[in-house]
Design a protein that fits this description.
Blueprint lengths: L2 H4 L30 H24 L10 E4 L9 E2 L2 E3 H7 L5 H22 L5 E8 L2 E11 L1 E2 L20 E6 L2 E7 L13 E10 L2 E6 L9 H15 L1
Antiparallel strand pairs: 1-6, 2-3, 3-4, 4-5, 5-10, 7-8, 8-9, 9-10
Helix pairs in contact: 2-4, 3-4
Length: 244
């Protein structure tokens, strides 16, 4: 993100150099669009989407123009995501209905990001049919998710083993939880042993369902939804039912 979006933070004095004076604070630039509630939630989504896109690009890098391949068989048949997903609608429509300043421009950027991400995902799976779409909750556009589907299998989510008891924690800081046929990668805020974890200490990185020939993922989650693996897993199942 640029300083035009968020403003620049001031620089503290260099404590490693005793005679170095503190640098003056830079004036904060106007935040404009990002001060809107729905756009504030989108900030994390855009950063996360950029990271996902970079991952797909890395997977696709190589001598073969088609890039990598999925696990097991893939298919080039087209794949389309639903226009609505429970209480979620396509982000572009939710943004424009908000009537906020800059909503049209943001909607256009997200549409372009989804199209480019679709291309990267397909390329990472050797040209398999793929689709990526950003959704926002109909009544709360600050809650957003990025949904992807590709006609190829994928490895199950993986995190290195952590011994929570040895660390003095109730739960490991990263774990994979299974909800039916869906696997969710969870980031837990540390809760000391003997205490009860707060509901908001659970943060869903993404949830995924996969088999030979299809992978559906819901990630880049903003709002309170990210604290509920069961609800995110239910969205995965909704998409799965729609595209199979």
């Amino acid at each position: 993100m640029t300083t035009e979006d968020f403003g620049a933070a001031g620089h503290p004095a260099d404590t490693d150099r005793p005679h170095s004076p503190a640098q003056p604070d830079r004036p904060a630039a106007p935040r404009a669009l990002w001060t809107r509630p729905w756009a504030a939630g989108l900030a994390g989504l855009v950063v996360g989407a950029a990271a996902v896109g970079a991952t797909w690009l890395t997977l696709a890098d190589g001598d073969d123009a088609a890039g990598g391949s999925g696990v097991g068989p893939t298919s080039t048949s087209k794949l389309a995501l639903p226009a609505t997903l429970g209480t979620f609608v396509e982000f572009q429509g939710a943004a424009r209905r908000s009537d906020s300043r800059g909503a049209d421009q943001t909607a256009q950027r997200i549409a372009k990001s989804d199209a480019e991400s679709t291309h990267l995902l397909s390329r990472a799976y050797g040209g398999a049919g793929a689709a990526v779409r950003t959704y926002a909750q109909r009544d709360d556009a600050s809650t957003t998710v990025l949904v992807s589907a590709v006609r190829g299998g994928s490895p199950a989510p993986f995190v290195p083993y952590q011994d929570a008891a040895a660390l003095g924690l109730v739960r490991p800081m990263r774990e994979v939880r299974t909800v039916g046929d869906v696997a969710c990668l969870i980031v837990n805020q540390p809760t000391p042993a003997g205490q009860t974890p707060r509901p908001d200490s659970v943060n869903v990185d993404h949830c995924q369902r996969t088999k030979d020939g299809l992978t559906v993922t819901v990630g880049n989650i903003s709002g309170d939804l990210r604290n509920s693996p069961d609800q995110v897993a239910a969205l995965v199942e909704d998409v799965w039912s729609d595209v199979t």
